[in-house]
Amino acid sequence: MKQGFQAPIYCSEPTAALARLVLLDAAKIQEEDAENANRGCYSKHKPAKPLYEIADAEAVFPLFETLDLDQWHPILKDHARLNLVNSGHILGSTFVEIEASGRYFVFSGDIGRDAPLTLKRRASLTSADVLLIESTYGDRCHPKEDPGESLARIIRETLAQHGHVLIPTFAIGRTQDLLHLLASLKDAGRIPDVPIYLDSPMAARATDIFEQYSSWHGISKGDLKRLSTAFHFVANGNESMSLCRSSTLSIVLAGSGMLTGGRIKHHLESRLPNAKNTVILTGYQAAGTLGRMLKEGTEEAKLFGAYVPVRARIADVSSLSAHADQKELLQWLSEFGTFPKRIFLVHGEPNATEALRVRITDQFHQVASIPGLGQSYDL
């Protein structure tokens, strides 16, 4: 936007609603982080500045143009057309089909699971001349253990030793899945009846948006009502800090999912030094994030410019991931009636992308390319 972009931003209706929420929240966090860094003098930048501010985010909103799914829409002055198809990853996420000059291009974006906890299952596509497909879990398969049982077992073990449970959450998708799952586990008596706190204003607002778009998910009205009453919403920062210091055993969900910002950092500062507590990671942790460092066994975590010892248990329930694993990616590919003529693997770390490339070659006898930064291809 600052460089002059003024074209339409096409997306589904839930995506537009969530994008407004996310952009404003990210801008607010960046402003707060910059302010805290300047106050605490722990940034190398003098002064530290946010990447973008709330006013910058608000300037984007008039460009959103929402489209109905499974309908072709003319774009680029009728030189091309676009179709959005449910991808089953998070609320509003879609595959993008573009037809231009008689050729079909498909951009997968993040691909959802075969059997998502709450969302409608991803759609199958019939054909593509060129496919760009994600490869986040291209080198592995999610554990077969029931995610509910994994989660319940870890919670029971932690509470039995009088520890607190922290669950870093992605505000959109994962939080709603987890609240639904935790409510079910508590109702079934599979976890103790302790308070469940949602310490994420953005996640609470995202849950409201989730409820508005019932056609995108499979939760009944009764379960939606239970979803909204299953947790205690932490309204403000003072309540959040009080919860960090509380000795009452509880389960706390707070953003962000990769521990890169948000209120979870204050909870970590308080709870990581105690070996009785548990941090449950429930999604992909990107390289360089605090979540990845904890997953790989770091002994110290840098929080607010100081190092905190990591004595708490770090548990990983990757079966709760909303990303398709290697097997599911290959299954989605096999559902094409006419197999793509060109495949490009994107959105994955090198090992994951290379592993998926090999599997595609072995299973489909098709060469897949891994594009490099700035590389171009003649199609």
Layout of helices and strands:
Blueprint: E1 9-11, H1 13-40, H2 54-58, E2 64-66, E3 73-75, E4 80-86, E5 94-100, E6 103-107, E7 130-134, H3 147-160, E8 165-168, H4 174-187, E9 196-199, H5 201-212, H6 221-229, E10 232-233, H7 237-245, E11 251-254, H8 264-271, E12 278-281, H9 290-295, E13 300-303, E14 306-309, E15 313-316, H10 326-334, E16 342-346, H11 350-364, E17 368-369
Parallel strand pairs: 1-2, 6-7, 7-16, 8-11, 8-12, 9-10, 9-11, 12-15, 16-17
Antiparallel strand pairs: 3-4, 4-5, 5-6, 13-14
Structure description:
The protein has eleven helices and 17 strands. By secondary structure, it is an alpha/beta fold. It has two domains: 9-140 and 324-369, Metallo-beta-lactamase, Chain A (4-Layer Sandwich), CATH 3.60.15; 147-320, 3-Layer(aba) Sandwich (Rossmann fold), CATH 3.40.50.10890. The chain has a seven-stranded mixed β-sheet, with helices on one face. The chain has a six-stranded parallel β-sheet with strand order 10-9-11-8-12-15, sandwiched between helices. A two-stranded parallel ribbon has the order 1-2. A hairpin with a 4-residue loop joins strand 3 (73-75) and strand 4. It is globular and about 65 Å long. It starts with 8 loop residues before the first strand and ends in a 10-residue tail after the last strand.
CATH fold annotation of the largest domain: Metallo-beta-lactamase, Chain A
User: Could you name the CATH homologous superfamily of the largest domain?
Assistant: Ribonuclease Z/Hydroxyacylglutathione hydrolase-like
- The CATH first-level class of the largest domain comes to Alpha Beta
Number of DSSP-assigned strands: 17
Catalogue the unreliable spans: none
Provide the succession of SSEs: EHHEEEEEEHEHEHHEHEHEHEEEHEHE
Radius of gyration, rounded?
22 Å
Shape: globular
Report the helical percentage.
25-40%
- Counted by DSSP, the helix tally is 11
How many angstroms does the end-to-end distance come to?
30 Å
